[in-house]
Amino acid sequence: MTRTFLIDPQRNASWPQVLSRAVSAISDWAKAGPVQVTIGEPKRTLDSNAAMWATFADIAHQVEWPHTKDGNWTIGLMDSASWKAVLTAAFEQETKQAQGIGGGTVMLGARTSQYSRRKMGEFIEFVQEFGTERGVKWSASAQDEMAQFAPTTKQQRAAA
Question: Among 43, 61, 154, 160, which residue is least crowded by beta carbons within 10 Å?
Answer without folding.
Answer: 154
